[in-house]
Amino acid sequence: xxxxxxxxxxxxxxxxxxxxxxxxxxxxxxxxxxxxxxxxxxxxxxxxxxxxxxxxxxxxxxxxxxxxxxxxxxxxxxxxxxxxxxxxxxxxxxxxxxxxxxxxxxxxxxxxxxxxxxxxxxxxxxxxxxxxxxxxxxxxxxxxxxxxxxxxxxxxxxxxxxxxxxxxxxxxxxxxxxxxxxxxxxxxxxxxxxxxxxxxxxxxxxxxxxxxxxxxxxxxxxxxxxxxxxxxxxxxxxxxxxxxxxxxxxxxx
Length: 253
Hints:
Layout: E1 5-9, H1 16-33, E2 39-43, H2 49-55, E3 62-65, H3 82-87, E4 92-95, H4 98-103, H5 108-120, E5 124-129, H6 133-138, H7 141-153, E6 164-168, H8 182-200, H9 202-205, E7 210-212, H10 221-225, E8 232-235, H11 242-250
Helix pairs in contact: 1-11, 5-7, 7-8
């Protein structure tokens, strides 16, 4: 049975003190009120990771990072490796977010190397894919998704795929207030699962969780999460408010 997952991507938000307060609040709410089996992950800034690891000790909430480098060490000023993340208690890492692809020009080839590095350290990769509005309107979105998946993940072994979660985030719905309809999202999620089946077989494809991201809110989460191939969400803005984030977690059935 596939894991149901809700992950919060905090992006470049919250000071250290603010992060500690939000982590403490989320931990308490999840501990005291959560009744479903959703795996909860928070991905604060690099700045907050060491203290977050301590604050989450003994909690069911997992800790993720927002990026990593593909090399283990070296002259890469400003970067952190997968092994460094692991050393402070990180268990998950976001790779390939559209903002990294757009602003930092990360290619599918580079993301494939990052994924390999993270998996080799035993980190679970939240691998992001998604199309722009122009690509959606031109009808090329399936080709874009196929390239991102095949070039970013298909070098992995079937065993490695146990450490991969895919997040479909249509770029046109990230932080815009626009959301793909549940039918649009399900269509792409089903397409991704078909790609995984063709490459790795039915058994593996049915084990990989596929999350939806893109303006997920408490009032639309339940409908999105009710779709057959949507296994949870990668949450942006709503993850910065503990109660909104938890209301999304509660939408997992």
